[in-house]
Amino acid sequence: MKAFGVVAEFNPFHGGHKYVIEQGRILTGCDVCVCVMSGNFVQRGGPAVFSKWERAEEAVRGGADLVIELPVIYASSSAEIFAEGAVRTLFGTGGLSHLVFGSESGDTERLVKAAEILRISSDKIDHTLKEGLSEGKPYHAAAAEARERAGIDAELTSEPNDILALEYLKVLLKLNEENPGAGIRPVAVKRTGAGHHETASDIRRELKKTEGGRLKAMEENYWNLVRSRILLADPEDLERIASAGEGLGNKLKKEIRYAESMEDFVDRVKSKRYPYTRIGRLLTQTLLGIERGAAADFVTYVRPLAMNGTGGKFLKYIKKNELAGIPVIDKVGRDSYFDEAAAEVIKKDMQAADIYNVIAGKNLYGESDFVKKTTIIKGAGALDL
To answer: What is the pTM of this model?
Structure first.
């Protein structure tokens, strides 16, 4: 079986995602598409518009064969940690020959060269970034300038998908070097433009019109949980949260009593140095208790959320041939299946699922990770092996 991997959030799944999967099959000649997907909380911070189970099922119905969960400690972190957690999960799954990703440039070779520069010049880039921030430059501008000064084309540091692609490739280059016999080849799929496919942001705006009541209730529930968590915490505890540091814990405590909404609170806390996205992640990490260093060892696993016949056969294939370099977890309640480090990571996933169910007003028992099972879409995509 030949398989390729895709990193995604599917928040929600849309035509652009379907296009990447379709192009991935064409460009790689692979039989199987494996997607690693953020769970109930997303990288920009906050709960997903639909649960991980619903989004995974929609992805399989839209063309994926197997959707596995990206642990929340990576899914709710910076682009660099998000990318490393996701690529390590796909790499550890085994049996994958390609990594496919959407890109504004669509130029795999240029992106690989830029990622190599990013990898070997990371200290220089970090130093230049800190200089830019100390001069009062906005974070994104300082980061782009630091990369350009290291020799990366400005075009590749200005678009979100290319920026994320560089992070994927930086990790992939390292893993391929460390595991020469199990290399995964990158393939960029050129995005066809906003006019061709709706973006996830477009769809979320439409959902606010059609499902405004549900989403508004989720926003209010999320806000109330976050501010309760901040009110109960000491500033020192908040400083230990993954995206905190440099006095952000005190800033959260200071502003929480004045904020009238989540949006107002983020506006009060964010700055040129700490952009909206970092504060958004910080609040999710605060709610879930994800502290600095939680992602340091990048412990991960294969946890199927949804699959079709082909995905099921691929899962059996990697198990039978012992291709997976990380645990394959079918039931999260069986702690004996995995070591202590993995147990701590998956514990956060289970807690995140419970908190999401409170936010979304879902049944805490029936929708819990202890009860929910992999969704199997029968009669779709089964390979005749």
So the answer is: 0.92
